[in-house]
Write a structure and sequence with these properties.
333 residues; alpha+beta; Arc Repressor Mutant, subunit A; 6-stranded antiparallel sheet; 5-stranded antiparallel sheet; 11 strands; globular
Length: 333
């Protein structure tokens, strides 16, 4: 796994540049005065020094890419977000108040909120960093567990690259960085909201922590009533982002129970039902077009960011590509 990631060593989020410099002093000033770092040092003062940072910020999460072509040491202050480092190339050592994590390409380290950190980066280091605001993370966790209050999350560090759940998390973050770089933050609010929800759910389920056992435990509930209530709600609100908080508040049971009940009675999750409903509406829109109707426009209006995935799901559901549905409708109009 580590070799696969390191072999790429690509640059991510080029559409969101923050800094790019060959001057260590310029780098120091940017970190200390623009980004609030507590200290910066490098052993390489030669002209070969190079550093780059990109960052895309959504409402509740942020994702950054940084690279250093020299050994650097940076100390960071406390933040209100939980941060997860994903090493793509090189190695790093992250020091917290109670632990030190060393990891290389394909590895990861989670930094809790409200703690100071110091990180030693090796030469030719590349990483992505996911930031999730603690308030948003706690809201998702409470909804999943059906609790008014939860214990602070205590993560197991560092993550093991061979863990299938961690690999799913890593590829989700790589995918998010790629999607944002291509489409930017000008995506419809519905898609941006669901991207944030999806990556936060992955973060909670794929990383091991002190409450993982509760998320994985079996759930009980009134299956038929709960599932019907959720389905009715989704049918009425398919144009909006369907959040786990809304489903939990609607039914009075935890989101974890809702997901398990759906899986038991329907064989799929509520999010799959959301997709089914949106596909149904996309077919209606393509079947009754106006002069401006396009497959891409319908896909975005129905919450599908990836045109290829939309076409695949549409064909699997209706037996033909969306372009065929639209072309036939326009011929008959």
């Amino acid at each position: 796994m580590g070799g696969d990631v390191e072999a790429g060593a690509e640059t991510y989020l080029e559409a969101f540049p923050i800094f790019e410099t060959n001057d260590p002093e310029e780098m120091r000033n940017a970190l200390l005065y623009r980004f609030g770092a507590r200290s910066f040092d490098t052993s390489n003062r030669a002209a070969s020094f190079a550093a780059r940072g990109n960052h895309a910020q959504l409402k509740h999460i942020g994702i950054s890419f940084c690279s250093y072509d020299a050994d650097v040491k940076i100390a960071f202050p406390e933040t209100t977000a939980v941060r997860q480092q994903f090493c793509l190339h090189g190695s790093a050592k992250t020091k917290l108040y109670r632990s030190i994590g060393q990891f290389g390409a394909g590895g990861s380290f989670i930094i809790p909120s409200n703690v100071q950190t110091a990180v030693d980066f090796s030469e030719s280091y590349r990483q992505l960093v996911l930031r999730v605001e603690t308030e948003f993370l706690d809201s998702k966790l409470k909804s999943l567990l059906g609790l008014a209050k939860t214990k602070p999350l205590d993560f197991r560090n560092p993550s093991k690259p061979e863990d299938p759940r961690f690999r799913a998390m890593l590829y989700s973050v790589l995918g998010l960085a790629t999607q944002l770089n291509v489409a930017g933050t000008l995506l419809p609010p519905l898609i941006l909201d669901e991207l944030q929800q999806s990556i936060t759910m992955m973060f909670l389920f794929c990383n091991h922590h002190n409450l993982s056992y509760m998320l994985e435990a079996d759930a009980l509930g009134d299956t038929s009533r709960t599932v019907r209530t959720v389905e009715d709600f989704i049918e009425e609100n398919w144009k909006s982002a369907v959040t786990i908080e809304a489903l939990a508040n609607l039914t009075g049971v935890s989101a974890r129970s809702i997901f398990k009940e759906f899986k038991k009675t329907r064989g799929y999750t509520p999010m799959v039902f959301v997709k089914k409903v949106r596909l149904k509406h996309s077919r209606t829109m393509l079947s009754f077009p106006d002069l401006k109707t396009s497959v891409t426009g319908v896909a975005l209006a129905c919450g599908f960011l990836n045109h290829g995935h939309f076409s695949r799901d549409y064909r699997e559901t209706f037996g033909e590509l969306p372009s065929v549905t639209l072309a036939r409708a326009k011929r008959g109009s």
